[in-house]
Design brief:
- The protein has 260 residues and is of the alpha/beta class.
- It has 2 domains: 38 residues, Monooxygenase (Up-down Bundle), CATH 1.20.1280; 178 residues, Ribonuclease Inhibitor (Leucine-rich repeat, LRR (right-handed beta-alpha superhelix), Alpha-Beta Horseshoe), CATH 3.80.10.10.
- It is 38% helix and 15% strand.
- The chain has 10 helices and 7 strands.
- A 7-stranded mixed β-sheet has the order 1-2-3-4-5-6-7.
- Strand 6 and strand 7 form a beta hairpin.
- Helix 3 crosses helix 5.
- The longest helix is centred in the first third of the chain and has 14 residues.
- The radius of gyration is 32 Å and the shape is globular.
- The chain starts with a helix and ends with a helix.
């Protein structure tokens, strides 16, 4: 009797449908992923990883990301991120590009002036923008700039700034940056006497000089002082241009590439 009952139970178990396990749906998986993300400590990422990410981000995105945690804020101020900077200065009513915020300019001057190596100024046609660029130049007293560019998107720009103001501001950079090697200047009131004073302070390091629409300068102000220079170019703005090449065989570089 017992043996018959046991056989009946076995038949019932074998014939019963298998017990199904509950499936993990899309939202359950999503919630699991969300919990994992929440638990992730972004501050645990190594400095070099965050630095690598920051190097590919525009400045405004780097600034936003720096508020994620203390470590990211520390990475934001690492000197490697401040080697190259372009100051954009304009009058919003007449220009198509966005001007660098004044607060950011002051932060750079106070915290990162010593880190700047490749600096350019892009200004519109207004005198106010050119004067603002001169004001910034005059504050770069603790810097080691290697490449300097002053670019006007439209005339007259720097030509409307007084020569004394412009030369005084530029002299600050020339005197304090002992490793200045490349200069690109457009539409400025620099003349021969001014240029002689400026290049004399960097005669050992200056290798490339490119001047466009600077009608008051000549090669006489540059060549006697910078005998080790490799390339110099003047464009007086009236269709005339002069190029000076020296020691080029030992300097394999496109001059335009270096100055961009």
């Amino acid at each position: 009797m017992k043996r018959n009952n046991l056989s009946l139970v076995n038949k019932i178990v074998r014939s019963s449908p298998a017990v199904k396990q509950p499936k993990v749906g899309f939202f359950s998986s999503l919630n699991h992923t969300h919990m994992h993300t929440v638990l992730l400590d972004w501050g645990s990422l190594p400095h070099y990883v965050v630095l690598r990410i920051f190097q590919y981000l525009p400045l405004i995105d780097r600034a936003r990301a720096s508020s994620v945690c203390r470590k990211w804020n520390e990475v934001f101020h690492i000197p490697d991120l401040w080697r190259k900077f372009e100051f954009e200065l304009n009058q919003s009513a007449t220009s198509y590009f966005k001007s660098t915020h004044p607060d950011l300019i002051q932060q750079i001057i106070k915290k990162h002036a010593t880190h700047l190596q490749y600096v350019s100024f892009k200004v519109d046609s207004s005198t106010e923008s050119a004067e603002a660029a001169c004001d910034i130049l005059s504050q770069l007293v603790n810097c080691s700039i290697q490449t300097l560019g002053l670019i006007s998107t439209a005339k007259p720009s720097f030509m409307n700034v007084s020569k004394s103001h412009f030369v005084s501001a530029l002299t600050v950079v020339f005197v304090n940056s002992k490793s200045l090697s490349s200069i690109k200047i457009e539409d400025t009131p620099v003349d021969d006497p001014s240029l002689k004073i400026l290049v004399a302070n960097n005669s050992d390091t200056l290798r490339l000089l490119k001047m466009s629409s600077c009608p008051h300068v000549s090669s006489d102000a540059f060549c006697p002082h910078c005998v080790d220079a490799n390339y110099a170019s003047w464009n007086w703005g009236n269709g005339h241009r002069a190029d000076v090449w020296t020691h080029w065989d030992h300097y394999q570089m496109d001059p335009d590439e270096k100055l961009h």
